[in-house]
Amino acid sequence: MSRSAAFSVAKPAARVITTAWGEDYINDLLAITLPALLAPGNLPELVKAFSCEFVLVTESRFFERIRRSSVFTRLEAYCCTRLVPVDDLIIHKGSYGLSLTYAYHRAFADLGERMTSY
Description:
This protein is α/β, with parallel strands linked by helices. It has 6 helices and 3 strands, in the order αβααβααβα. The longest helix is centred in the N-terminal third of the chain and has 15 residues, at 23-37. The radius of gyration is 16 Å and the shape is globular.
């Protein structure tokens, strides 16, 4: 084994983030969005260059349904996944924009100072 083969360089990290709440949006996520993410040239290509993580910010009542779906199982074969609850951010229909902003922030806030280096 050559010296260069013995030392592997860690891939840079990348986090794919999306949000979905409400029955119709969960249906679209499972039937359209995640299959599109898994299409050739999308996530399968991204994981070749990056160590990827997928974060979905959604209602906790959908966690089990999402985890049991075949498309989510396929996604887990490519990268680490995490479901983050959004329940406390959904106040009323008129607060959608603010809820969405906080939902996306929640998906990367755990990185702390590292969030600017991804």
